[in-house]
Amino acid sequence: MDTERYQIGSLLLNAGTQEVTREGEPVPLPPLSFSLLLTLARSAPNVVTTAQLEEDVWSGLVIDRGTINKRVVLVRNALREAGCTQDYIIVVRGTGYRLSVPVQRLDESATNGHGPAPDMDVPAVLPEGIEATPASKNLRWMVLLLLMLVLGVIIGSDLQLFEERADSNSASAPAVAPGFSGADSIAVMPFGHDAETGEDTYFAEGISRELVRMLSNYPGLDVAASASSFALRDSEADPAAIADQLGVDTLLQGSVHREGERILVMASLLHAPTGRTIWADSYDHPVNELFQVQDAIASRVAVALRIPLDGNLAIDSRAASTGSIEAYTLYLKGRGRLDQRLDGGAEPILLALEDFRAAARLDPAFVRAHVGLASASFLLSSHGPKESRAQWLERAEASARYALDLDPGSAEALGVLAAVVAWRGDPMAAAGLFERAMERGIRDPDVLHWHAMLATSMGYFESLLPVLRDAYRLDPLNQLLGCSLAGSLNFSGRPDEAMVILSGMDR
User: Fold this and answer.
1) Are 321 and 328 in contact (CB under 8 A)?
2) pTM above 0.85, yes or no
3) Contact, 299 vs 163, CB < 8 A?
4) β-sheet bridge partners, residue 251
5) Residue 283: pLDDT band with limits 50, 70, 90
6) Other CB atoms within 10 Å distance of the CB of residue 152
7) Is the dihedral of CA 223, 333, 467, 32 positive or negative?
């Protein structure tokens, strides 16, 4: 019986051995990435819908489009590292994905696995009336040129639509500073406000946190965690020094003025090394249009940074949140209070719990409010009296499972549930839940820290290091992550590297 094998451009994929090679050299792909490439090969040259990918690659799990997009980016990056000079996977806007190179199903005699298939340079789908002729180099170049022009039109139209969506304030969006070639890292500083109440502080800083979350969805853009950028809110250092501490090239700054039923948000994007303003704008809207304002800022920042845009990636903060501004404001306040627990102990967690409860009462389907309840309850199991630990764990699990009933793809809910299961003494089940949260692109520093604690307790130091290094790179002032990374390095036989981390935390 023949082994299922495919020639995909210059790649050879062997389904039986779960291997991909290029010119005889292995191309390392994790299981999910391999399954995605195999699914696309089986359907080539046809489009594979996102629903089909969910079924074939994620085994029926309910996931969001962002998860699929991030996996596609991982496959593209792996193929580039293997020497492939073009993107093998292209987006068919609003539908799914397909391979952009020729795909041939092989029998055992078709190839020895050490060379590309014939005519690998010819696109998988040729324009009508054109035949692929191996001897005709001019024809190949004409076809490739035509394909590049078509792709240019598609990408250009996606960019135009994206920019049109970003401009919610006027008919013409402010221009990006000329001569700026783009950047791949950013820190969102806490937005200021001109009121003296704590409510306005939570509201303004909450918008900043949301922008961190939204910008983190863009593949290829490193976004400093809010825990680190907010730690420098009162720093007197210049922008270049702040950016250096956070390991980024650009800073997003802003202010929020709320008066009655209107809100004025001003935002500016700064190139830290030069001090140059790349983009700036202001948004004067009714408070109930806050979601559109956040969408517009995130979109304009992505355009200004020259982030490659995916037609399937749409910014919509309301879709991931709630339609109630009142519930949303309470949620932002609760998240801000949770960040105060290192200094305030249990008291800010209890106050955050009440904020999340109030938000959930206003909108019972507000998934992130229920995740907030789960997180606060889990934290109280360790910050509160020992005799109430079991009760808080039960409440945390109930809230996390309820959030998952509302949204089975919630990475945040999976992360909190994993922490609860780990605390109750079932490490293998917890590890599986954490893995599912990681597949969905979890970026919450608390969840990453809880994952690190579990992996450390199980002795998985080496496999944990890449995750911790990446998390600590994005959150360099987070001492919990720093300690977890240093501990894992030490247990992995790298005490010198651990000391570098710990020494840096003392400065």
Assistant:
1) yes
2) no
3) yes
4) 187, 270
5) very high
6) 10
7) negative
